[in-house]
Amino acid sequence: MISLRNLIVFCFIASVSAFMAPATNSFVSRPSLQQVVAPTVPVTATRGQYSMMAKVAKFGVFSPAVFAAKVVLGDKELNKVRGKGIALHSQAITEFCQYIGTSTQLRSRIIKLAKTNGDTLGFLV
């Protein structure tokens, strides 16, 4: 599990980094003016092949905390914690929808909205 020292370092980095502007944040990498960027080649999928292209998450208020958690916990442990958090949040939404008697379509729309909000806030970096 997380040691007390790692937890304190994580909290310190998250609290300091949360108030920094994205342009001056050390977690964000920006290409310099001297850096040459190679042109992108469009990938076409042939029959039977699928193009797997992930969406790039937005940089939000909680992005520095997520980057710090990546450094402290590692990718594998962070994905476990993130998965548990998403599962608990989806369960809470489902229980709320059952309590007020909404349809399953509305519940799925609320869960999609929660994912969009999480991306905007920077949880999905």
TrEMBL record:
Signal sequence segment: 1-18
Signal recorded as keyword: yes
GO BP terms, alphabetized: photosynthetic electron transport in photosystem I; response to high light intensity
Xref: InterPro entries: PGR5 (IPR037497)
Keyword entries, A-Z: Signal
Database matches in PANTHER family: PROTEIN PROTON GRADIENT REGULATION 5, CHLOROPLASTIC
Protein name from the UniProt record: Uncharacterized protein
Species: Fibrocapsa japonica
